[in-house]
Amino acid sequence: MPEKITTFALGELYSSADIQLALQVGNAGGVRLNLGADGLVNRIVIMTSVPGARKLGENPYHDRMEGDILVYTGAGREGNQTLAGVNKRIPHQLESNFPIYGFLLVGSRRDRNLGPKRWRFLGLLEYLRHYPETQLDVRQQLRQVWLFEFRMHSAVPAVDVSGDRLLSAQMLAASREIERAGVDDREVVSAKEGVIPNLAENATEIEAVRAHLLAMPPQRFEHLIKQVLMQTGFENVSVTKYSQDGGIDVNASAGKGMWPIRDLLIQVQAKRWLHTVGRKEVAELRGSLQPFARGAVVTTSHFSRAALNEAQEPGKNPIVLVDGFSFATLVRSIKLNMD
Q1: Which end of the chain has fewer CB atoms within 10 angstroms, the N or the C?
Q2: Is the dihedral angle over the CA atoms 166, 172, 174, 177 positive or is it negative?
Q3: Residue 269: enclosing H or E segment and its boundaries?
Q4: Residues 6+ positions from 122 with CB-CB distance below 8 Å
């Protein structure tokens, strides 16, 4: 039996047995619970993996780390998923503040050089939101899955298991004070509410386009937006230098055919994300705009309700929001070659 780990250090590698023994969780599944005698959660462990470019092309919906956000998809690659069992426990962190540990698989069992310590500690995770999403399964059939988004906290270099509950509560309180994310920023705008255009008769074809977009490198996505703008009548379209700084990615001017707003400067921020675009990103774009320019955020994912409210805030320069379904619909309608 391996020696029991008492402290998990950020970035260090551990075996599945180490994790099971130290955190008193099961040895199977992507979400592993430790429950108290009262049936309430003491801690949760999230076991995930991040694909390379080839695997991302095969499955664009795979779990991802985007900046400090971990996007975790519920289990099962065929049929509809349900929010039940262990997954249903995750949002309870909002009230109970229990610790959620994150571990990333860095190699397969076939890698003899790596040995059994194949799980890198990502740090403690903060639950942000969960929501249903329509995706294509391995048979290219539409199905509903559940996505969970977490913030990975790297400021805590080591976690003493004996004091993880208190540490988690302190970390979460500090993070929530800084972010001040309300209910509206946890809620993802749903197509069923009519906010996002829903062309059900072409939904499978449109989702196939969105899956293609999700598999693109971010720089390629920016250039695709340039192509779409040019093909839909915009002029003087240019992609800015790639910097990952959250600023302006594409500039364009309204074309001659758009005579009431001809020459209006349009500044676009591209978000080739799987995770949700929130209020913060919309507000930051507005602050980056040139005087009298109109801003737009184009994403492969979704927007929170707070982002929608921020974009339409009275007295502020309005921001156009284009979600993944809407943009994929546009790309499909103009028959744009994405290869």
Answers
A1: C
A2: negative
A3: strand 265-271
A4: 10, 65, 70, 102, 103, 104, 152
Cβ pair 137, 208 in contact under 8 A = no
Tokens 């507000």 belong to which residue?
A: 283
Question: What are the helix and strand counts (H, E) for the chain?
Answer: 10, 15
What the block records as the tokens of 152 is 């990975």
Cα–Cα distance for residue pair 198/204, rounded to 1 Å: 11
Q: Residue 309: enclosing H or E segment and its boundaries?
A: helix 305-311
Domains and CATH numbers, the chain: 7-180 (2.30.280.10), 193-333 (3.40.1350.10)
Cβ count within 10 A of residue 223: 16
**Mean pLDDT per 10-residue run, the chain (339 residues)?**
88 96 93 94 94 69 93 79 86 96 88 85 96 86 92 94 97 86 76 45 88 94 97 96 78 94 96 95 94 96 94 94 94 88
**Distance between terminal CA atoms of the chain?**
52
Q: Which two tokens stand for residue 163?
A: 């004091």
What pLDDT is attached to residue 121? Answer: 98
**Which contacts (CB < 8 Å, 24+ apart) does range 255-260 have?**
257/233, 258/233
Contacts for 224 with CB less than 8 Å, ≥ 6 apart: 213, 216, 331, 336, 338
157 vs 40, 301, 335, CA distance in Å? 27, 31, 49
Give CA angle at 182 (178, 187), nearest 5°: 130
Q: Which of 298, 247, 274, 267 is nearest to 51 (CA)?
A: 274
On whether the CB atoms of residues 164 and 100 are closer than 8 A, the answer is no
Instruction: Please name the residue that has the structure tokens 């809620």.
Output: 187
Nearest C-alpha neighbor of 142 from the set 61, 204, 76, 210: 204
From its phi and psi, is residue 335 left (phi > 0), alpha (psi between -120 and 50) or beta? Answer: left
- Cα–Cα distance measured from residue 294 to residue 319, given in angstroms and rounded to the nearest whole number: 7
Please name the helix (run of DSSP H) or strand (run of DSSP E) that holds residue 133, with its range, or none: strand 119-136
Contact 55, 66 (CB under 8 A): no
User: Are residues 125 and 46 in contact, defined by beta-carbon separation less than 8 angstroms?
Assistant: yes
